[in-house]
Amino acid sequence: MSSKPCGNCKKTVYINEKIDAEGKWYHRACFKCMAPDCKTGLTLRNFQMAALDDSEIDPLTKRPLKVLVCKDHVPMPKHSFSRDSLSLKHTLSAPKPSMAGIHRSLMG
């Protein structure tokens, strides 16, 4: 295939002008951070793919589409714990460390 649509502007990208990142082709001018008000130029060494808060939804997977972003705009994962989460319950109910069973010569 000698052309594909650009992953950013959707116009045709020809093989002699392509930047191929994660299976998508981009024009050199379109290979930039897609975060609002950023537009930092990217390279194959520093680009990242991430779903932004306002990303379009993929009709097949029903998940946000990933777009090009710079390191400053990679969304941080949203972690949340509740006292009912299983891993937190195990942590809170774990036995407390003690010196029982430690050989006296190792204790000093």
From TrEMBL:
UniProt-listed Gene3D superfamilies: Cysteine Rich Protein
MF terms in GO: metal ion binding
InterPro entries: Znf_LIM (IPR001781)
Pfam family membership, one: LIM
Domain LIM zinc-binding: 6-46
Keywords: Metal-binding, Zinc
Protein name: LIM zinc-binding domain-containing protein
